[in-house]
Amino acid sequence: MKFATWNVNSVRQRQGLVTDWLAANRPDLLLLQEIKCEAGQFPSDAFREAGYESEVVGQKSYNGVAILSRVPVAVMHRHLPGLAAPDGGEHQARYVEVRAEGIVFGNLYLPNGNSGGADGYAAKLAWMDALVEHARAMLADETDFVLAGDYNVAPADEDFAPGALSADDALIRPETRRRFRTLRWLGLTDALRALTPQGPVYTFWDYQAGCWPRDRGLRIDHAMLSPRLAERLTGAMPDRMERDRPQPSDHVPLVVTLDDA
DNA sequence: ATGACCCGCGCAGCGGGA
Known about the structure:
Helices cover 24% and strands 25% of the residues.
């Protein structure tokens, strides 16, 4: 089976790129982040014509996640379990989880953590803590699961181009990286790093300052696999060609393939 | 020397992205 995760930076701006990519790659599931619209504005009909049903968790203007699938899915969660909503407010649209083909797919868009001052960064860490607890619970249940999406974490120094981030950036602060390591210590496998153990394998290039032509990128989109799924891992690679398309997202799809169970 | 974008919202310019 094949799945991909892709921060599309507005699904309405990128609808044609997404349908083209689906036609060319035919993943079983595509996990989208930063759709930047409410569920009612999501182009479900266009994706259905391409052979994909949509599960959408949207909000106005910001954030938003969706799972496109050409296999049957059952929705498990529409927000991250264990994470409280802001006082008197709605959850931000950053998590949706389905079960398909005997696997739980958690699609996540982690807070960046660089805006909102100390509170903004604390919210990122709280989000990561809840993600760790959710992973722990699924491991205890012996669930086969994937936690994939835009983590907004560059786990190691080789995961960002020299000079692309300052030392106090929320994407690389020690507290951020410590929580990402906890996911690994629990027993999850970073699919891309498992198959490409060393060197840059970026998934994001800023629109500014010629970052793409200079290959000044970041590796911040990840697919973390539970132990039995890691044993089935056969492929994991960012689709760099997508960054050369007209009006691309600043992220490219990360494509993962698993052997049949 | 050192490149300054892109999105939604809504019609100017700002907050957010990373």
